[in-house]
């Protein structure tokens, strides 16, 4: 049997369903003679009759009846495959790189991952964590598509969107001086052995400028950029840290650390979701950004206290 084209097989189904060459010609906006020639070519290629000519039209032969369900199933499967492929093309897919502050609790990122996996299995995530300066550098160099970092005011960019405001606390061991205090005035940092990020940290500059303005001398016992090491030194070294509330929320709830908001003045920093201005924005990166915003919403509520 010669190979028939897809259109010829569709014509076979149409003739069988309508039982009339005239109706098929009208459906195809063509001449009946053209449909008749096409049918004759199909039957010649198949080596036998597919239809019986009757006074009222055409009807399938025995061979045609055996062929009909197989051709119909094949055509329907092909259409379903085409629809599936179209849906997959429309679905966001590809790798999206995220740079995120290491102070963001992993539970929020895992929620975002699970939601993305459920909705968009074609999206693959790559996550890097670090301090704000590192995340900012990754954005500038085009190493990540999305950054979650402290950035507001003069540092804000056109494609930034505010996530939440981080309130900062004085953090100590559970049995330290800060335990049980509702708030700590900034002047109360005078003389305390502190572990702070080192220069050129933007937050360290903010702390130093505020200390000069308030006439407070900060005793920096250790400079350290690692959040995990800062917490360790608070517990094991008898030091105090100034950390964002979202960075220690679970530690406080578990009683592993004691903390109190710094007031007079309070210390707050805006946390931003920034889209890369170097890498192209894709449908996948837009969806990742949207779900990250949703999953990080609880942090906005956690940091909404007044100073």
CATH architecture of the largest domain: 3-Layer(aba) Sandwich
Globally, the shape reads rod-shaped
The overall number of domains is 2
Number of helical regions: 11
- Rg, Å, rounded: 34 Å
- Alpha-carbon distance between the termini? 85 Å
| Largest β sheet strand count, sense and barrel closure | 10 strands, mixed
Helix content: 40-55%
Strand content: 15-25%
CATH topology of the largest domain: D-Maltodextrin-Binding Protein, domain 2
Q: How do the SSEs run, as a string of H and E?
A: HHHEEHEHEHEEEEHEHEHEEHH
What is the CATH top level name of the largest domain?
Alpha Beta
Structural class: alpha/beta
Count every beta strand, where a strand is a DSSP E run of 2 or more residues: 12
- Uncertain stretches: none
What's the rounded overall pLDDT mean?
89
Give an account of the 3D structure.
The protein is 45% helix and 23% strand. The protein is α/β, with parallel strands linked by helices. It has two domains: 6-89, Winged helix-like DNA-binding domain superfamily/Winged helix DNA-binding domain (Arc Repressor Mutant, subunit A, Orthogonal Bundle); 94-302, D-Maltodextrin-Binding Protein, domain 2 (3-Layer(aba) Sandwich), CATH 3.40.190. The strands form two sheets. Strands 3, 4, 5, 6, 7, 8, 9, 10, 11 and 12 form a ten-stranded mixed beta sheet that branches. The chain has a two-stranded antiparallel ribbon with strand order 1-2. The chain starts with 5 loop residues before the first helix and ends in a 5-residue tail after the last helix. The model has no long low-confidence stretch (mean pLDDT 89).
